[in-house]
Amino acid sequence: MKISKFPHHTLLAGLLILPAAKEHPYLDPGSGSFILQMLIAGAAGAVFILRNQIARFFGLFRRDGKTERKAGSKAAKKRNAK
Amino acid sequence: MPSETRIGGSFRDPNGFLFKRKGEVFRQINLAYRQDYELLKKSGLYKELTNEGLFLAHKEVDIKAADPSRAFKVIKPEQLKFISYPYEWSFSQLKDAALLTLELQKRALSRGMWLKDAATTNVQFHMGRATLIDSLSFEAYPEGQPWVAYRQFCQHFLAPLALMALVDIRLGQLLRVHIDGIPLDLASRLLPRGTRFNLGLLTHIHWHAAAQERYAGQKVSARAERGGMSKTALLGLIDHLDRTVRGLHWEPVGTAWSDYTSETSYSRSAAKHKKETISKFITQTNAETFWDLGANTGLYSRLASERGIFTIAADYDPAAVELNYAHMKEHGEKSLHPLVIDLGNPSAPLGWANEEHRSLLDRGPSDAVMALALIHHLAIANNVPLDRVAEFFSRLGDWLIIEFVPKADPQVQQLLAARKDIFTDYHVDGFRSAFQRYYRAVAENRIRDSERILFLMKRRG
Predict the structure, then answer these.
(1) Nearest-by-CA chain B residue for A24
(2) What's the whole-model pTM score?
(3) What is the arrangement of strands in the sheet containing B439-446, beginning at the earlier edge strand?
(4) pLDDT digits (tens, 9 = 90+) for B426-459
(5) Which residues of A touch B209 (CB under 8 A)?
(6) Which residue has the higher pLDDT, B124 or A42?
(7) Which of B26, B115, B391, B397 has a CA that sits 20 to 30 A from residue A7's CA?
(8) Whole-angstrom Cα distance, residue B58 to residue B240?
(9) What is the pLDDT of residues B354-380, one digit of tens each?
(10) Are the beta carbons of B149 and A27 separated by less than 8 Å?
(11) Strand B310-315 to B289-293 pairing
């Protein structure tokens, strides 16, 4: 029984065939798991950048957001000084 | 028994292993891990994570390694009081362990490292919160590569969480059979069709399963692997997994005991008397470790844990354990460890050579065991003869606080409502006689305004 149709992609041809680049110590990452990540990489990166930009944009208008960040960095400095 | 033993579950990673010497746990770090270990320290990652309680702290110790030919260092991690397994966790415990793993991955990436594995067994509940315990999990981030532990994360965390939240909470027990996580093709088949409209589950479960099937055994090109995924894309993937996990919820309703907190088995004065008696008994045991079996939401477990006694609160009902965990998180309790355990079928030794996961019995004994309003479930609902219950309890701990619930009690009557009463020995004298073979009776108190009796017993020998 087929699980679900996997979307075809012309880029796939370049991702296959040759020997692996790095020997991983003991965990098998799985070919399908690697390829899926490479296929969604572009979208994942773009959404991540967009979300960060939106968060930064709205952060500009939030006063308490700035205060929180400052407090956070002070706490971080204190922690590192210990 | 040898004074030094290798710990069963730590043999897969060639970078090191755990061993026990004179009752204490140590980790040998092999030469193969030297560079990564030095980076972990130099990058500040170790300090940051241990300061915040996200990663188990350790000390480097100058003792003989268990395998000197491969050893770089020996470390002594902070000693854990108990090891639990993901099929013993409630939904939110597994969810917190998943979110911790993703948080660690983000923090590591900001310091030039990443997680090279993402197994549930790398996480334990220490001082009341999820903590990474595997000191060998971080390695230098190989820029451009997809996450090597992505498959493992989805199998160990995302698939069981999705099944528990969206199909049935009891599917968490699949992790007992699949100790390397739930196969994604199985998860994909079991999840409702509607989950294909959830972008996170569509990508990380359904497409992931399909990709595994389609590209099984095919080699990934060196060029693609090295430059296949930028760091921003990897952070995007982690962020997406994080949002997918956060989007899964389970409300503890509809199981047998989840309304226990409003239970009416006792009048107010009886409940007060029961608490006072148990507190007195706990003092007499002088216990440092305490297992409350059939603990429900932990009302009485807290009589021990609030004194700083490390307390396991075990119950077979995932809803009760979920409520218990929510309560302990909200109150920042550090000594209580709620767990889902079915005493009729307690956790067994699992994995390679039956040594990777230890049985419940093997993780004991505890100083004291408590079993309140449990005996009728074991003896009547489960048909376990009373002397067998006594023998089993005597293997779990030195002291026993146990409540006898007589046949006339409405809860026992409920169990007998639809069946023939074949339990001729189930009465207080039969109970005393069965338990005295294994225990010496220390105290016996009938609960005020009730027919129930509390016993304190000490194991013989």
Answers:
(1) B148
(2) 0.90
(3) B336-340, B310-315, B289-293, B366-371, B397-404, B453-459, B439-446
(4) 999 999 999 999 999 999 999 999 999 999 999 9
(5) 3-4
(6) B124
(7) B115
(8) 32
(9) 999 999 999 999 999 999 999 999 999
(10) yes
(11) parallel
> Would you call B51 and A40 a contact, using CB atoms and an 8 Å cutoff?
no
Separation CA A24–CA B328 (nearest Å):
39
* Phi (first) and psi of residue B71, to 5 degrees: -80, 140
B41 touches chain A (CB under 8 A): no
Q: How close are the terminal C-alpha atoms of chain B, in Å?
A: 20
User: What is the per-residue pLDDT across B51-82, written as a single tens digit (0 to 9) for each?
Assistant: 999 999 999 999 999 999 999 999 999 999 99
- In sequence order, what are the beta bridge partners of B282? none
CB B296 within 8 A of CB B320: yes
Residues B382, B372: contact at Cβ < 8 Å?
no
For residue B402, what are the β-bridge partners?
Answer: B371, B455
Closest chain A C-alpha to B405 CA, distance in angstroms: 51
